[in-house]
Amino acid sequence: xxDLSPHFSRHQFACSGFNCxxxxxxxxxxxxxxxxxxxxxxxQPIHIxxxxxxxxxxxYIGSNDSSQHPRGYAADIGRLSGMTIGEMTAVAESIDAFxxxxxxxxxxxxxxxxxxxxxxxxxx
Length: 124
Known about the structure:
Blueprint: H1 29-42, E1 48-50, H2 55-60, E2 74-78, H3 85-93, H4 96-99, E3 102-105, E4 109-113, E5 120-123
Parallel strand pairs: 3-5
Antiparallel strand pairs: 1-2, 2-4, 3-4
């Protein structure tokens, strides 16, 4: 049982940086609700590879300041057992918050976000 929702806890979204924000994790509740929907649809726990990133850490890893992670609007979900990245992406596309937000596909994870400025899609 999580402290943000039935299946998610703040520590899962904490910044992974060092010498920066101290691991804070301000996460938008709309992201949590969409991730709960994703988890229900896939029928298994999901691992958050990266949630909130403070700007210091976000810059350190080479991401730009327009990233949705520092806003608490994004999560990277690790590959799920028995599912391809394409199948995970299809599930994300079925969730309104992600369909209207951002979905990025990578070799070992997908990025999902609830950006307010319209849909965005990319491959990493």
